[in-house]
Design goal:
The structure holds two protein chains of two kinds. Chain A is α+β, with helices and mostly antiparallel strands. In chain A, about 50% of the residues lie in helices and about 20% in strands. The radius of gyration of chain A is 72 Å and the shape is rod-shaped. The two termini of chain A are about 65 Å apart. Helices cover about 60% and strands about 10% of the residues of chain B. The chains are: A alpha+beta, B alpha/beta.
Chain lengths: ~650, ~200
């Protein structure tokens, strides 16, 4: 599996601002347009209804007029016939028929030429006939009809209580005077009989007088609103009457309403869904922003880490490195990602060890604690890294690879080394001071008796010298010589005390394997050797017999020799700095040799090498080899040195007897 | 009597040095500490001082400083171990007479002490001379002093007589008196004696 984790943080760009203008505009416009449409449709509908109503009303008025014309004609015919034939029974029958015809007439009255009441059909009660006779409207109209000799409509009158009526006066217009036939119309009857049923279903029809009071109405039902109404003057028959028509309702039609409703519902649905989408998008934006910020924050954290981070997949390919890692090794992320082992930053001389660690990690058997490895930078510089390796497990618990954090501990180690050296130096100085103090005290302690001895002896010599002339008693000289002896013994005491002080620590001798001692000693100095670029090589003979030694003392001795050897190679070429520590069986004992590849020891130096306080080093106090030799002698062993073949360094050897 | 005064805290050294000086017939006295010496010190002591630098209590250097404060004119020889040569040298610069490093060549030490004793004796004499010249000068009369000043200026008797307005014979008398009082026989000797004073 080879996979690079592509993380660049480029989320899809945000929708531009104007993209939201259109939906918003639509959301505002759609209701307006739909509202306008509805209003327009409603308006059209009203118009249609009004037109229909007007034509209906006009038709009604025409119909009424036509009917009344017919009635007029019938009445004239009746009048003519009656005058010609004088047949009263026929007249009665025909008048009766006319009334029953349902043409709005309720009474037919016959007046003579001078307006006297001759007959009333249907037959009326005497008080009613009296009433007709007394009606001024009646008489006036009949006179006018006779005078003008043409049919005349009377003004409205009330024949009965709440029964508005008007009448048509039809004179017998022949050249001789004749009767006047009067057809009395009741407004109620007219409406009931003449307005067809379908008309009344749609409209409320009423007749109103000149004052706007309703005289009669086809329906008693009141209409709720009167915005859809129409009035036509009912003239001439009405003489001030008005025919008013009001529509019961504006006939809301079901289909368009349903359609409208659907459209409105759909629009609302669209708006709601648009709003929902917008909300969703906004939430997404918020989430994206949070994600972006979170990512940026994490990236910033990662980039500002001083710890190097490296991720590897299960096959060991690098899939991720952070900037700190790149800075440590000197290779860029592009150069490292996708690389397989061996990595370019593995130091060639540590390849074997690095590979072992790598294989352990890949096998999952690596130790949990940090691993210390030496790597190289791109420019070849070496550095020490402390690496913590951990399995890379994702949110689903799947193991994807390995995550390592790396610390550059070169500086730390250098500081530690510096500190150690400083401590060494300090200790050395302290020892030097102590030794100086001791030597100074010793010198003073010895000086005193020696000075005294010298003075006594000189005094004695002076007395014995004749030329001096001073006489001396023999007893005085003897006395003084005793003092000389006493002072000499005093000096001896000082020396003995020093010796006792030095001897105070007896070696703790115990049997041990010389190879172990050598390994322990080299282990102690390994770090120092590495820093000085000196390779330590052990060449240990197997199956050596145990030696009876003080382990610590021998270790000190070896450390001293190794340190001397490393110091000797300070000027040697870097890759030639090899220090070989070898053990070998030798002359009933074992021999440890320390061979350096330094410039060797000059003959003048060699002669002085074991002299106390002689040192070739600036900081040396010239006790090292001296002590070494003392230790060797304490163990009944020997310490010597020899030049290596062709002047290539020096070998110091320690021989220890085996009992 | 000139004596070598020894201050050392080591009994053997003191004893040995006394024996050494005795063998060369040099009078010597010893103290075991600086404090004891300071107690016994008097301005009339004549000779030289042998001081050990390293001592318990007051060191040789401190003693030297105290003696200098008391205007002691005794020449001081420091005896030092190798550790305090530097101190000894600085003491030398402050007026010590000599320093000798231990271990020393004993007769050489005695020789140096003898030189110091001689130096001290000479210093004493000079101090005594100086004191006597002063005393003699006090005995001169006004006239004799005036004559002496002119003699020292190298003037002849005749010139002196002219300057002082006296007879030449009187000048000669004054001169003889003056020479007698100052204990000199010639003008040269007089000049020498007075020169040492300045």
């Amino acid at each position: 599996m080879r996979r690079a984790i592509a993380v660049d943080g480029n989320l899809p760009p945000r929708a531009p601002r104007w993209a939201w203008v259109l939906p918003r505009l639509a959301a505002i416009l759609v209701p307006i347009v739909i509202g306008a449409l509805l209003w327009l449709l409603h308006h059209n509908d009203l118009d249609d209804q009004r037109t229909t109503m007007i034509s209906d009303v006009l038709w009604l008025e025409q119909n009424l007029r036509f009917q009344m014309e017919r009635n007029l004609e019938q009445l004239r015919l009746l009048n003519i016939d009656t005058v010609e034939t004088r047949a009263t029974p026929t007249y009665d029958a025909r008048a009766q028929a006319l009334i029953q015809n349902g043409s709005g007439l309720v009474q037919i009255v016959r007046l003579d030429r001078i307006g006297r009441l001759r007959s009333v059909t249907p037959a009326a009660a005497p008080d009613q006939r009296q009433r007709l006779r007394s009606l001024a409207v009646f008489t006036e109209a009949s006179r006018r009809a006779v005078q003008l000799d043409k049919p005349i409509y009377s003004k409205p009158f009330n024949l009965d209580v709440d029964d508005p009526c008007f009448a048509i006066f039809v004179p017998h217009y022949n050249d001789r005077p004749a009767d006047v036939i009067v057809g009395v119309y009741s407004v109620h009857a007219l409406l009931y009989q003449m307005v067809p049923w379908w008309f009344t279903e749609k409209y409320r029809v009423s007749v109103m007088d000149a004052n706007g009071a309703t005289l009669s109405s086809k329906s008693r039902v009141q209409t709720s609103d009167s915005d859809l109404s129409y009035q036509v003057a009912f003239d001439p028959p009405g003489q001030g009457y008005t025919l008013a028509v009001v529509a019961y309702h504006h006939g809301t039609r079901l289909l368009p309403a349903l359609l409208m409703m659907t459209i409105v519902l759909l629009t609302v649905a669209i708006l709601v869904s648009l709003w929902a989408v917008k909300r969703h998008v906004q939430r997404r934006h918020v989430a994206e922003k949070a994600l972006r910020e979170e990512y940026a924050f994490r990236k910033a954290m990662e980039d500002s880490l001083l710890t190097g981070l490296r991720a590897r997949d299960l096959d060991g390919y690098i899939v991720y490195v952070n900037p700190a890692f790149c800075q440590m090794v000197g290779w860029s992320a592009d150069e490292l990602i996708g690389r397989e082992p061996p990595m370019p930053y593995w130091a060639p001389e540590e390849m074997a060890q690095t590979l072992t660690v790598y294989e352990q990690i890949m096998a999952g058997t690596a130790p949990h604690e940090a691993v210390e490895l030496r790597f190289q930078r791109k420019n070849g510089e070496r550095f020490d890294a402390l690496i913590y390796e951990a399995p890379l497990i994702d949110a689903n618990g799947v193991h994807h690879g390995w995550m390592a954090s790396m610390l550059d501990i070169t500086e730390r180690k250098r500081a530690e080394e510096r500190y150690r050296q400083q401590q060494d130096k300090l200790q050395f100085t302290a020892r030097l001071v102590t030794m100086g103090e001791m030597a100074s005290t010793l010198a003073h302690e010895l000086n005193q008796p020696l000075s005294a001895i010298s003075s006594y002896a000189t005094g004695c010599l002076n007395l014995l010298d004749d030329s001096n002339g001073a006489a001396a008693a023999e007893s005085d000289v003897v006395h003084t010589l005793r003092k000389v002896v006493a002072q000499a013994q005093r000096a001896g005491q000082v020396i003995r005390r020093v010796h006792e002080f030095v001897r105070r620590r007896e070696p703790m001798q115990e049997p041990c394997a010389i190879n172990t001692v050598v390994e322990d000693a080299t282990g102690l100095i390994e770090v120092a050797a590495r820093w000085r670029g000196v390779r330590l090589q052990l060449d240990l003979a197997p199956n050596l017999p145990p030696v009876q030694v003080d382990k610590v003392m021998i270790e000190q001795l070896l450390l001293n020799l190794i340190r001397n050897g490393m110091d000797a190679m300070a000027q040697t070429v870097a890759d030639q700095r090899l220090l070989v520590v070898a053990t070998v069986s030798h002359e009933r004992g074992v021999c440890v040799s320390v061979s350096d590849r330094g410039p060797g020891i000059a003959p003048a130096v060699a002669a002085q090498l074991y002299e106390p306080f002689f040192s070739t080093k600036q900081e040396g106090m010239g006790m090292g080899l001296n002590i070494c030799r003392s230790i060797a002698e304490l163990h009944h062993g020997r310490l010597w040195f020899e030049e290596r073949a062709n002047g290539n360094g020096t070998t110091f050897s320690l021989w220890l007897p085996v009992e | 009597m000139s004596t070598a005064y020894i201050v050392d805290d080591d009994a053997a050294i003191r004893d040995a040095l006394l024996w050494l000086f005795k063998s060369r017939a040099v009078p010597a006295l010893a103290w075991q500490s600086a404090e004891e010496f300071i107690e016994d010190y008097s301005a009339r002591m004549a000779g030289c001082l042998l001081l050990d630098i390293r001592m318990d209590g007051m060191t040789g250097l401190e003693l030297f400083e105290q003696l200098q404060a008391r205007d002691c004119r005794l020449p001081v020889i420091f005896l030092t171990g190798h550790g305090d040569v530097g101190m000894a040298v600085s003491a030398l610069k402050r007026g010590a007479h000599d320093f000798i490093e231990k271990p020393f060549n004993d007769n050489e030490l005695v020789n140096r002490v003898l030189i110091a004793l001689e130096l001290d004796a000479r210093n004493c004499r000079e101090r005594a001379d100086l004191a006597s010249v002063e005393a003699r000068l006090q005995q001169l009369t006004e006239r004799e002093r005036a004559v002496m000043d002119r003699i020292l200026a190298g003037k002849l008797n005749k010139v002196i007589a002219d300057e002082l307005g006296i007879a030449m014979r009187t000048v000669e008398v004054h001169r003889a008196r003056l020479f007698e009082k100052m204990g000199v026989k010639s003008a040269v000797e007089l000049a020498q004696r007075l020169a040492r004073r300045s």
